[in-house]
Amino acid sequence: MDDIGFIAASWVLTLGSIAALAVFTLRRAKRLAARVPDSAKPWL
Amino acid sequence: MTTTVAETDAAAGTGTAATRVIGVAALVVVAFVAVSALLLTPADAVQGDSVRIMYVHVPTAWVAYLAFVVTAVTSGISVARRHRTLGFDRVAGASAEVGVLFMAMTLVTGSLWGRLTWGTFWQWDPRLTTTLFLFVTYVGYLAVRNIDTDPQRRARRSAVLALLAVLEIPLVHFSVVLWRSLHQEASVLNLDGDVRLDDLMLFTLFAGVVGFTLVYAWLVMHRQRLAALGDAQGTVGLDAAIAARRAEASSVPTGVAARTKGA
């Protein structure tokens, strides 16, 4: 496959940044959820 | 001892059954797209293998547009509602955050693709310039949202900006038609309705749009709940500070209080 470095970089950067945001969001949510009462979580 | 669904959800933070279903569906579809785009689809007759970047570049651009439109619509609802709750405003903010990430990825993958097809990472071309302008506008929107103020004022202020910023999207999309541009015209969503793609390429591209839209939905659901937790934590912190101040005031002996008053 030609240009594999550019193609791989596109995919790795895109999926990697989405995964990083997802992990950051979940970890922060877990930390904040422990400090806030359940009454402030209407999705439960 | 058994664990209820509510206890499991509480431990998961912002997760629910709906986010888990959307998350799994997004993973499956994106995995299929990756395999199909990198291994199964043919190389382009003109561009060769570099066309494989299209399967991330186009869906990320689509999701960014969608995210900014959702931001504008929910901002409009947030402003129009007489009894203002912050739910729509939080969705607007969460959608813009995810949109900015996807727009950044559109610019990065477009730049890499441009290096292969045009021989340069960047040109001040109408499509590239208007896309960069859109990205910077929404970075500004997020900065405005982070100005330290009360949530109602934040909602009004950012809604005005969101309703103005969304007007840039038609300009970006039609920039290749309005001006002379290096960037190719739309291969699928073009005005003459002529789709210029091989069947498997088109299906993979469509699956990519669906997969990244699911990822967007998952991220927005979690991030708007995260914003609600952040606002709630601010309220809890303020209540605790007020209670501590009251307790401190009431614990001062009356004689000391009288002397302090007299002084």
Q: Which outline of chain A best applies? A: rod-shaped
Order of helices and strands of chain A: H
Count of extended strands of chain A: 0
Stretches of chain A where pLDDT is under 50 for at least 5 consecutive residues are none
Summing up helix and strand content along with how strands pair, one would put the structural category of chain A as mainly alpha
Instruction: Name the beta content range of chain B.
Output: under 5%
User: Mean pLDDT score of chain B, rounded?
Assistant: 85
Output the radius of gyration of chain B.
25 Å
Helix content class of chain B: over 70%
Instruction: Let me know the average pLDDT of chain A.
Output: 90
Largest interface: A-B, 33 and 44 residues
Assembly form of the protein: heterodimer
Distance between the termini of chain B: 62 Å
Question: Any chance you could write out the topology, listing elements then pairs?
Answer:
The complex is a heterodimer of chains A (44) and B (263).
Chain A: H1 4-33
Chain B: H1 5-12, H2 17-40, H3 54-80, H4 87-117, H5 126-145, H6 151-165, H7 168-173, H8 175-178, H9 199-250, H10 254-262
Helix pairs in contact in B: 2-9, 3-4, 3-6, 3-9, 4-5, 4-9, 5-6
Question: Can you walk through the features of this model?
Answer:
The complex is a heterodimer of chains A (about 45) and B (about 260). Chain A is an all-alpha fold. In chain A, about 70% of the residues lie in helices and about 0% in strands. Chain A contains 1 helix and no strands. The longest helix of chain A has 30 residues. The radius of gyration of chain A is 18 Å and the shape is rod-shaped. Chain B is mainly α. Chain B has one domain. Chain B contains 10 helices and no strands. Chain B is elongated.
